[in-house]
Amino acid sequence: MPSPLHPPHVAVVGAGAFGGWTALWLRRRGCRVTLIDAWGPGHSRSSSGGESRVIRGLYGPDRVYVDWVVRSFAVWRESEARWGTRLYQPTGVLWMFSADDAYARTSIPLLAEAGLTVDEIAVEEARRRFPQIHFQGIRSVFYEETAGWLAARRACQAVAAAFVGEGGELLQAAVRPGAVRGARMAGLEIADGSRLEADAYVFACGPWLGSLFPEVIGDAVRPTRQEIHFFGTPAGDPRFQEGTLPVWLELGEHSFYGIPASEHRGFKVADDARGAPIDPTSADRTPTPELVESARRYLALRFPALAGAPLIESRVCQYENSPDGDFLIDRHPEAGNVWLAGGGSGHGFKLGPAVGEHTAGLVLGEETPLPRFSLARLAEASAARRTQFEAAGPVPR
What we know:
D-Amino Acid Oxidase, Chain A, domain 2, single chain, alpha+beta
């Protein structure tokens, strides 16, 4: 625990899911913390912005992710009570497999040990329970009771507000890493020409990590353009509303996911396949007509009553993908006082509380880096592995 007489000063760059929670945990551990973001918590260019993110425990045989989901569930619930803000919507999650379902079956024992309920449902039973879904081509179905969605932008803002309320400093500014001398980074260069010096630095910059550290990370974390579409449901029809329909995911040759109409918004549909490369700063965020039509075709196939439903809203965001879909949480190889946290790969938001807690422990020397999240393993990833990952599309972590 830091000395209250001489608390270390930590600068955290990026107020998304990873950075915001890291800053809050560091502040709660007694550090002086400055949290910096170029456009503010939950902004529209960030990977953590937008209306909603799925939270679920199904993670194949990956115990570390299951453990972090369990921890994150607990922190999300505790935080809602502490802040008086609703962030987690427990709709349940319906998993539909049109191909191999080993991903689900290998998860079930780990989830059972963790106290999370997952039930296999016969396809005929699924048709009875969810008649608004057309199950043609679906081979197996699983229902995860303790799952749902998180209010993404609202959560980022709530974390930042709690951080400030507990004595942290929030700064909206564009920064760049300073020079590294003697195995330490001396400070941050702020766009207005000033500098910010701290004892330690955490860069949790999502899709900007590679451009901030081109020689260390480069294209090992690749931002891709991801489109999300919201379709209008029939007036007064509850079949596609939260409370009647759970969050759903389909894994197969093409993988889509969606969130039922909630908070008086539309029915969310998204293709989880990795999109085209994107510059998160300068990219135009106009939806692509071809991808809108692809979402319409899927909607007509799986939710036939919504065929022809009007598009009422779209968002263009991004994933920041590692070659294997695992996170990057490691020390900078040339600067002992710099930590890097990113590579969310489309599944990191829900784990923000656990990732932030782990990262804060690393900064304070109370946690050990996990090899599977190391920078070295990214550097060692072969070009063939990266090509295989991109061609395969989503990694359902």
